[in-house]
Structures are given as structure tokens and as C-alpha cells.
Write a structure and sequence with these properties.
The structure holds two protein chains of two kinds. Chain A has no helices and eleven strands. By secondary structure, chain A is mainly beta. Chain A starts with a strand and ends with a strand. Chain B is globular, with a radius of gyration of 13 Å. Classes of the chains: A mainly beta, B mainly beta. Chains A and B meet through strand 9 and strand 10 of A and strand 5 of B.
Chain lengths: 119, 109
């Protein structure tokens, strides 16, 4: 089955520094990947849709200069949290689906998630 | 606005059956998904319904009624490892996934 690898699983950083999270589709090509954020006991919040070879599409209220997304290849998308602050501490999860569109029974496969703690 | 409702928490006994309900109001409908999420981990896919009726997959079954905007996930022969959050998600007319807040299921011996 489809596998999505996300790294790092946990990261602790100082306030003001930047952190990069990688998301790779291991056995399929993903034109589109999705980045989510999840607060404790809350639902998944879509942050942005990452499109290979073009700019990411950000959801309303998500700062694109704060959360930089790069989708340089069909198997890799990165999320960089720039100038991180304690309020950025959260669980970040990427996901992808085989194929060029998330339609039909194409299922989103999630990475294992990255727990970010900003001190 | 778009909304997915599911109970916040449920408790059940090992070996028993539990039904987790999900109601939705969305802009269009292109399928409903159930995911399982253990604490601190990413969600894993359980089931997909796009037509009315029951989809059975081992100990787990999922039901959909599009006219009622309603689905349920049925878990049989509960095991301790089934303790997790169960997320209901609906894909709307724009193929965007709308997520419920999840139902935390606690299994007791």
C-alpha cells in the first residue's frame, strides 16, 4: 500500500529559529500533498495544499510567509516554520494520495506526524 | 457553513460492540471516510462510503445515509487496541475534506 514518510517525528527548537519538516511519498508519485495541523483533542486543520512545481495554496488565516511550503518533486514536499514561536508548537501532519487528483476512492495516506515544541 | 458532528468521547467494554455516529452538513458530497488515530500518531484509513448502505471490513463496518447526512462506524468484538480516536471526514463538492473533531473511544476490560 501507499506509504508516506514524515521527518522528523519530534523536534524541539528555540524561539526565533526555523524548522523544516519533510514529507515523502515512498512508493507512489504525489502531485498534491496536504499539510495539516492538529491541536490537542481537536480536529485536523488543513493548512495548505502543496502542488508539485507550483506555489502552494494556503487556507484562510494561514500565513504563507510563516509556513513556507516547497514541493520540488513528485515525491517530496517540505514545510518550514520560520521564526518559530511557542504558539507554533503543535502536531503537524502531511498527507498524500496516489494519482493526480484526490477523487473517487483515492485515499489520503498520512505521514506519522511531527511534534514541534518551541521553547 | 460546513459541519461534521460526532460525539466527543465514548466508553465500551472489551469484547462488546460500539457504534460511533457522524452527522454532516456540507456543500455537496463526494464520499465519507473514517480514520483511526491513536494518541500521538497520524490517522490511518479505515473505511470509505460513497453510496448508501453498509460496508463491512472485518470487525469494522461503516454505514451511510446520504439523505439523512448520517454515517456510523460499527466496531465489533472490541479489543483494547481499539482504544483510539475515530475521525469522520466528508469530501465536499470541491473535493475538499471536511474533518470532524473525532470521537475518543475508551475500551475497558
Amino acid at each position: 500500500g501507499a506509504v508516506v514518510s514524515q521527518h522528523p517525528s519530534r523536534v524541539i527548537c528555540k524561539s526565533g529559529t526555523s524548522v523544516k519538516i519533510e514529507c515523502r511519498s515512498l512508493d507512489f508519485q504525489a502531485t498534491t500533498m496536504f499539510w495539516y495541523r492538529q491541536f490537542p483533542k481537536k480536529s485536523l486543520m488543513l493548512m495548505a495544499t502543496s502542488n508539485e512545481g507550483s506555489k502552494a495554496t494556503y487556507e484562510q488565516g494561514v500565513e504563507k510567509d510563516k509556513f513556507l511550503i516547497n514541493h520540488a518533486s513528485l515525491t517530496l514536499s517540505t514545510l518550514t516554520v520560520t521564526s518559530a514561536h511557542p504558539e507554533d508548537s503543535s502536531f503537524y501532519i502531511c498527507s498524500a494520495s496516489p494519482g493526480t487528483s484526490f477523487s473517487g476512492a483515492n485515499v489520503l495516506t498520512f505521514g506519522a506526524g511531527s511534534r514541534l515544541t518551541v521553547l | 457553513g460546513q459541519n461534521i458532528d460526532q460525539p466527543t468521547e465514548m466508553t465500551a467494554t472489551e469484547g462488546a460492540i460500539v457504534q460511533i455516529n457522524c452527522t454532516y452538513q456540507t456543500s455537496g458530497f463526494n464520499g465519507l471516510f473514517w480514520y483511526q488515530q491513536h494518541a500521538g500518531e497520524a490517522p490511518t484509513f479505515l473505511s470509505y462510503n460513497v453510496l448508501d448502505g453498509l460496508e463491512e471490513k472485518g470487525r469494522f463496518s461503516s454505514f451511510l445515509s446520504r439523505s439523512k447526512g448520517y454515517s456510523y462506524l460499527l466496531l465489533k468484538e472490541l479489543q483494547m487496541k481499539d482504544s483510539a480516536s475515530y475521525l469522520c471526514a466528508v469530501r465536499d463538492s470541491n473535493y475538499q475534506l471536511i474533518w470532524g473533531a473525532g470521537t475518543k473511544l475508551i475500551i475497558k476490560p
